[in-house]
Amino acid sequence: MDSIWCKILIVVKTYPEISSKYTETVCVAGVRADNKKLIRIYPIRYRYLASEFRKYQWINVELSKPYADSRPESYNINPSSIEVLDEIPSWDERAGWVLNKENLFPSVEELFYAQKENRTSLGIVKVGNIKRVTLESKSDVEIKGQELRKNEILRQTDLFETKKDLDLLPVRIKLQFECENPDCKSHNMSILDWEFGQRIGD
User: For residue 54, is pLDDT > 90?
Assistant: First the structure.
């Protein structure tokens, strides 16, 4: 499949998840330099990359469309192609890229509508009213199952790399909020951000 080269401003990195195929995966989202639209890069074996990058840092990378993911924003990455570029230090400059009309939706309902109309799967919605942030503890059975699966994957022999242990999160972080749709009955969504996971792991 044909590939493209793309300059991307990284804006999202999720906490790593264990994967039987990739050992572990991270989902990354960013803004394309050529059109300011959001883009999803998945899967990324972030902690195994030769070139790591931070949020609000530009990268130049070779991408291709995945066979199994028809969402228009989704791309696979060639890990060896990553070129790490400059960071954007100030929020004013970041906002010029992130908070533009290509990415903003007035409500979660409008984003869902766009998904039905044209398969849009990424968007930025301004939170109107935060009702609560909660930590939901995982059950002992779920935690034990995750640990067993992780240990099984980490035991798999690989001649070319050493597997890295991963702290599995014992809780889920949920944000309940209302958006600016007058008919909004509130939303309860998981927070998957890497930094939140690191704080809990610490």
Answer: yes
- The verdict on pTM exceeding 0.85 is yes
- Domain-located, residue 83: yes
In a shared domain, residues 95 and 137: no
| C-alpha to C-alpha distance for 63 and 73, rounded to whole angstroms | 12
90 C-beta neighbours (distance < 10 Å), count: 9
Average pLDDT, the chain: 93
Count of structural domains, the chain = 2
Sequence-distant contacts of 20-27: CB under 8 A, at least 24 apart: 20/149, 20/153, 23/48, 23/153, 23/154, 23/156, 23/163, 24/48, 24/164, 24/166, 26/194, 27/192
Whether residue 154 has pLDDT greater than 80: yes
